[in-house]
Amino acid sequence: MKVRDVMTAPVVTVGPETDLAAATSVMAERRISGLPVVDRGGRLVGMLTEGDLLRRVETGTQGETPGFLKTLFLAGSVASDYVRTHARKVEEIMTPDVVTVGPDEDLGEVVALMRRRRIRRVPVVADGHLVGIVSRADLIRALGEVLKTPPQKPEGDAAIRTAILAELGKQAWAPRGGIRVEVKDGTATIDGVVFSDEERRALIVAVENVPGVNKVNDQLVWVDPSSGMSVGADGRVLP
């Protein structure tokens, strides 16, 4: 899936000279947490986000008044804080260095970028101009559409079992032996031995995601390698 498949377009934007009161009103009315800032030519020059607005003198959230020593030795930092808490125009408080992506980039790369940079949204730029934005909400909406699409189901229990074994064979964490799978009327029974509860839960998720499986009958036994203790599917310690 590509960025263009999930991005929001057109995008609500503001200009760098926009009054901060007007910009915050747009954010509140549209219920958006970040506004791209574009110049008159439509080129992205910054982002105004909720994080830029957390510390404000108007709401009494500007933080403590700097002491004498900080003012003396860190005058630049104190001055910068003053701008952030008192600015009246978007360009005075926006984040100027914005990470962007292109509309044809793979969505997986964008998600990795958002996680790495700990950001909630990424502007989409083509030929230097803003063409869209991808937010976490867009990703959730796209996921919802995919989940609503019914997958093609294998025909018959034997085909479902084959699909389960093929899926487990693709997973590096899955046991390569000691696990048995049977399917009857769409109910998949898995039994055998696993060596962690995480492995057990992963097996169940992998099986229940195979098209055609309508129920998973968990008969796995979890053996703790350090103690030798065995725990059944019902959570009881086995003798």
Distance between the termini: 50 Å
Count of individual beta strands? 9
What's the CATH superfamily of the largest domain, by name? CBS-domain
- Chain-averaged pLDDT: 86
Shape: elongated
Strand order of the largest sheet: 5-6-7-8-9
Order of helices and strands: HHEEHHHHEEHHEEHEEE
Low-confidence stretches: none
Count of discrete structural domains: 2
Structural class: alpha+beta
Beta content comes to: 15-25%
Helix content: 25-40%
- Major sheet summary line: 5 strands, mixed
CATH architecture of the largest domain: Roll
Rg, Å, rounded: 27 Å
- The CATH topology assignment of the largest domain is CBS-domain
Would you write up a description of this structure?
By secondary structure, this protein is α+β, with helices and mostly antiparallel strands. The protein contains nine helices and nine strands. The protein has two domains: 3-146, CBS-domain (Roll), CATH 3.10.580.10; 157-238, 2-Layer Sandwich (Histidine-containing Protein, Chain: A), CATH 3.30.1340.30. Strand 3 and strand 4 form a beta hairpin. The protein is elongated, with a radius of gyration of 27 Å.
